[in-house]
Amino acid sequence: MNEGEDKGIIQFIKSTEVDERFVGVWSGTDHGKFFIGETNSWIVTRKIDGTLTVNFKTIYTDDRVTYAEDKGFWCVKGDDYFEYRESDEKADHYTFLFLTKESIHFIINEEKTDEEPYNFIDNKVFLD
After folding, report:
1. Which residues constitute the domain of residue 90?
2. CB under 8 Å to 31, separation ≥6 — which residues?
3. How many domains does the chain have?
4. How far apart are CA 103 and CA 101, in angstroms?
5. Which of 6, 26, 27, 56 is surrounded by the most beta carbons within 10 Å?
């Protein structure tokens, strides 16, 4: 992504209303759906100002484990969720469905293929 596109998506996200239902600390895993041979899990903190922090844990088939942290921006427009992380080349675009107030099913919005689209569920984390 070039610098102009980078600024454009950040401006779009920053100028879009925040859906307060998403604010808080959430956890999820992809159960190996994104990359064969690795399972990613995360804790994402979405703030009311449209910023986010994600802490990833990746477990590989050879039992190696890596950790990473990323920061970025998020917003919701209609039934679409947008997330831009500093490590990404472009924003992720998902449709979503609240299964409960504490559980959101995300489905990536990308070109249709014969495979099931990348999807996962975030669950709200309740801190003491």
Report:
1. 3-124
2. 39, 120
3. 1
4. 6
5. 26
